[in-house]
Amino acid sequence: MARSRPSSTSTALHAAQRSIDSSDKYRASVTKLHAHSKMIADFLSPDGRLDKSLEPSSDPDAAQFIEGCKRRLKDIAEGNAKRMKEIDVFVSAVTNVKNEMMQKNSGGENQEEEAVDYEAAIHTAMEQIRNNTNTNQDLSNHPMVIEVKTALGEKIQQDDDLEIIHNSTSDSNAYKCPITGMLFEQPVRNKICGHTYSSAGLSQLLKNKKKSCPIPGCTMNYLAMNMVEEDEEMKMKVKRFKKREEMERKKREMEEDMGEEEMGEGGFTLIQ
Ligand SMILES: [Zn+2]
């Protein structure tokens, strides 16, 4: 879209659709880069070929060299993760602008077409989405980064056990869908704003005329099925939460059964 000559709405709509369509191509090229990174990571892992031929355990220079390669590879993985996120941001921005155009357009057929700088509108939308994106969406937890680290033979830190200890009196609201009000079922995360909903809740929302993220304060004013991905982390959290609840229920039942005077502190363990 040229800045000098603002395009008509229909031309702009077509251009927007073309941009959205071509995003798959960009995604595919990042995915290819990522596949190569994983292959190299395999090669660098403790039982990989490079490690075997260089013998870093007896040669400090070789060890340093391999460490350097690993660091570089992890940087590349983070770069790929970032590219993927930028593509998502771009597609959402174009989709937002496109929907606004269509809404304005549906006002009347013979409405006078105003000259709009769509390029600027897309930039503004991208800025808005970036500002709105959950800052705790740390790239070090991005699946692409995790996959490369795993291929490198690094142990991925699991916070499961820690969380069970620290979070044993957790608030069940943290595991409830803001739409259905029930514990998350098949949770999906909005790739742009980072908010999570149950699949059923999202379907419900998508039936509304005005589709926007229902989280208070979120300015994501468009929602579509292809904007979400499965929220594996939330799935696991809900599973753990249910398990904790179950354990507490069992404990209470046992306490009732045994009578209070027989209950010593830590009298029995509940670990199966
Ligand atoms: Zn949101």
TrEMBL record:
Residues 255-264 have a biased composition (Acidic residues). Pfam families: zf-Nse. PROSITE patterns: ZF_SP_RING (PS51044). Residues 245-254 have a biased composition (Basic and acidic residues). It comes from the Eukaryota. One of its GO terms (molecular function) is zinc ion binding. It is found in: Nucleus. Residues 160-243 form the SP-RING-type domain. Residues 1-12 have a biased composition (Polar residues). The keyword Amino-acid biosynthesis does not apply. GO terms for cellular component: nucleus. CDD domains: SPL-RING_NSE2. Keywords: Metal-binding, Nucleus, Transferase, Ubl conjugation pathway, Zinc, Zinc-finger. The keyword DNA repair does not apply. Residues 1-25, 245-272 are annotated as: Disordered. InterPro entries: Nse2(Mms21) (IPR026846), Znf_MIZ (IPR004181), Znf_RING/FYVE/PHD (IPR013083). Pathway: Protein modification; protein sumoylation. Belongs to the NSE2 family. This is SP-RING-type domain-containing protein. It comes from Cyclotella atomus.
